[in-house]
Specification:
The complex is a heterodimer of chains A (259) and B (314). Chain A is an alpha/beta fold. Chain A folds into 2 domains: 1-91 and 177-259, Rossmann fold, CATH 3.40.50.300; 99-176, no CATH class. Chain A contains 9 helices and 10 strands. Chain A has a 6-stranded mixed β-sheet with strand order 6-7-8-3-9-10, sandwiched between helices. A 4-stranded antiparallel β-sheet of chain A has the order 2-1-4-5, with helices on one face. In chain A, a hairpin with a 2-residue loop joins strand 4 (69-74) and strand 5 (77-78). Chain A is globular and about 60 Å long. Mean pLDDT of chain A is 90; it is low at 1-10. Chain B has 314 residues and is mainly alpha-helical. Chain B has one domain (2-20, 30-313). The longest helix of chain B has 27 residues, at 28-54. The two termini of chain B are 24 Å apart. The mean pLDDT of chain B is 93. The chains are: A alpha/beta (259), B mainly alpha (314). At the A-B interface, helix 2 and helix 3 of A face helix 6, helix 7, helix 8 and helix 9 of B. The complex binds adenosine-5'-triphosphate and magnesium ion. Residues 25, 28, 30, 48, 50-56, 97 of chain A line the site of adenosine-5'-triphosphate (ATP).
């Protein structure tokens, strides 16, 4: 075997491949011929100025929005026309830029519902779900993983903003996804929470493929194995963090003031 | 401990209803009022599963009740009065209507759901009015109450009282069980955030549809009982005003717990009767009372004890 793929993160057949994706809102082109491959392990960051179309891209991958043209392949199959819930079943988990935890459910129950999604049928009517160890134990483990175990019994609506972000992550992890789509998981978190979340993402990337949209450049360059830069819906560069940092087009369009 | 506390109030309520004939409420007139409240309570419990559980506000629930009642009429006209046939016909007839209309309705939500359920119910209402074989707009008087194994048990006031009570308690236990189950958890989650639930891999539609069908079956059962209670069925059973009454029972009683629907049904029926004695213009007083109750009772009647405890502490 001459050409074994190199065993490093970022290698192997991509878990996610976008081909010529396009999306317009009225006259505004928000996704402009985007092609992108995400490796089956590690963090692939998507950066770009406000309104560049990052969230819209995440929406198209997760299935909340349909692209006007182009194709999306995930885990070896075309998912361009699958609805959101079918994509989730295939192993696509997402967090929301605006947190979307269930405010009336406890933190534990939020995660337990995610475990339930992968634990056989939910058309079960007799046993109280809140008492099922088979759901609660993995849920508790996911809460521990993100450092939220002590707050398990608290209603999600009563958690702090940073804690809600942690909970979003725990929910996504409980789905045991093949790919995590994270839309600004650090937004609005305090400095300590940010540090904790960065450490967590650093640990997770060994086991998961993560597509990370983030404005915090320090975090991005500390974590990412690959970076893609989106400006006005167009991918202007994609590659290793060091190469992106040095790219003159990126510096001119975006990193100018930072770098 | 909290589970026991949650069940304490409804169990007390059922115990009181069970004792009612023996503690001065045994008059025929009072018992028929209580039966009516308990029967509407069964329908309201199904509606609670939809409104409080799934977040689906239906303004067509009376149609399901009416279909249950008309199933009794249709069989009565064919001289079939045996409960073994009548009761399943009522339940399945209403559940089938719920399945067919729900298949369209549960794909919508909010105001759209309200309008679609109302539209389907109005359709059923006009069809009932046009059935001249069954009296059309004038309604239909039953030859007699439903029999069980050939005997007229239901003619006995006490038997009927305890039958209604047993079915009410059973309906309450069923709704509580469903809401706590995996199935109910998906329903409740989809009420709070349907997008989040879809992102977890759940398609809310089949869960909502099944809830709608179960609520339909419960309303059908209530319809069969109501037809027996009054021995008379008319299109007004399906009228939107009655759907509104059922919705009010559920909201007035409180969406936080299923027994709210039972409290709401009792409160509405008894208050309506009491005010009706007092003045012919009772609806003028009834409306504002309901508005005040909704404004000031945060968790409805079911939330009243907690609200009083809170006020006592504060
Ligand atoms: N549903 C919509 N209808 C019309 N325009 C939209 C819609 N959603 C987003 N847009 C527009 O599309 C553009 C891209 O929005 P998007 O939210 O994808 O940007 P973003 O890169 O995520 O920005 P941010 O960094 O601020 O989160 C913006 O100009 C936005 O106003
Ligand atoms: Mg965004």
């Amino acid at each position: 075997m001459a050409d074994l793929p190199p065993a490093r993160p970022g290698a192997g057949t991509p878990i996610l491949a976008l081909e010529g994706l396009r999306k317009r809102f009225g006259g505004l082109t928000v996704t402009d011929d985007v092609s992108l491959a995400v490796a089956p392990r590690g963090i692939h960051a998507v950066i770009g100025p406000n309104g560049a179309g990052k969230t819209t891209l995440i929406h198209q991958i997760s299935g909340t929005l349909r692209p006007d043209a182009g194709r999306i392949r995930f885990a070896g199959r075309e998912i361009t026309h699958l609805p959101l819930h079918r994509r989730a079943r295939l192993g696509l988990a997402r967090s929301f830029q605006i947190t979307a935890v269930l405010p009336g459910f406890s933190a534990l129950e939020n995660v337990a519902l995610a475990v339930q999604a992968g634990a056989g049928s939910s058309f079960r009517f007799f046993r109280p779900a809140a008492g099922e160890a088979r759901l609660n134990e993995p849920a508790m483990a996911a809460l521990e993983q993100v450092g939220l175990a002590a707050r398990a019994a608290v209603k999600a609506g009563a958690l702090s903003h940073g804690e809600k972000r942690q909970l979003e992550l725990a929910i996504a992890l409980a789905l045991r996804p093949k790919l995590l789509l994270l839309d600004e998981p650090l937004a609005g978190a305090g400095p300590e929470e940010t540090e904790r979340l960065i450490a967590l993402l650093g640990r997770l990337k060994a086991d998961y493929a993560i597509l990370l949209v983030e404005h915090d450049m320090q975090a991005v360059f500390a974590l990412a194995d690959a970076v893609s830069v989106l400006v006005y819906g167009r991918l202007i560069a994609s590659g290793a963090p060091a190469a992106i940092r040095a790219d003159p087009a990126v510096r001119a369009a975006y990193l100018g003031e930072d770098a | 401990m909290p589970r026991w506390r949650e069940a304490a109030l409804p169990l007390l309520l059922f115990a009181l209803l069970g004792a009612a004939p023996w503690i001065g409420f045994g008059e025929g007139y009072v018992l028929s009022l209580l039966a009516r409240a308990m029967i509407l309570g069964i329908a309201a419990l199904g509606l609670h599963l939809l409104v409080g559980g799934a977040g689906l506000v239906s303004l067509g629930h009376a149609a399901l009740l009416g279909i249950g009642a008309y199933a009794v009429v249709v069989l009565d006209a064919a001289r079939v009065t045996e409960a073994v046939w009548v009761v399943p016909a009522s339940i399945l007839g209403a559940a089938l209507f719920a399945l067919l209309t729900g298949a369209v309705a549960v794909r919508t939500s909010g105001v759209q759901f309200i309008m679609i359920t109302l539209a389907f119910a109005q359709m059923a209402f006009f069809i009932a009015g046009s059935l001249s074989v069954y009296g059309g707009d004038d309604g239909y008087t039953l030859y007699g109450r439903t029999e069980l194994f050939g005997r007229r048990w239901l003619e006995d006031r006490l038997v009927f009282h305890y039958l209604c009570l047993a079915l009410l308690a059973g309906a309450w236990a069923l709704v509580g069980m469903l809401l706590a189950s995996r199935f109910g958890r998906v329903l409740r989650a989809a009420r709070e955030n349907a997008l989040r639930v879809a992102a977890l891999g759940f398609n809310p539609v089949p869960y909502r549809l099944l809830a709608y069908v179960i609520a339909g079956g419960m309303a059908g059962l209530a319809g069969a009982l109501l037809a027996n209670a009054t021995e008379f069925v008319a299109p007004s059973y399906l009228a939107w005003q009655r759907s509104g009454d059922l919705l009010f029972m559920v909201i007035l009683g409180g969406l936080g717990a299923p027994h709210g629907a039972v409290l709401g049904a009792l409160a509405m029926v008894l208050l309506e009767e009491w005010l009706g004695h007092w003045t012919a213009h009772w609806r003028l007083i009834f409306g504002p009372l309901l508005i005040l109750a909704v404004l000031f009772l945060k968790g409805g009647l079911a939330g009243l004890p907690a609200q009083l405890r809170g006020a006592g502490r504060g």
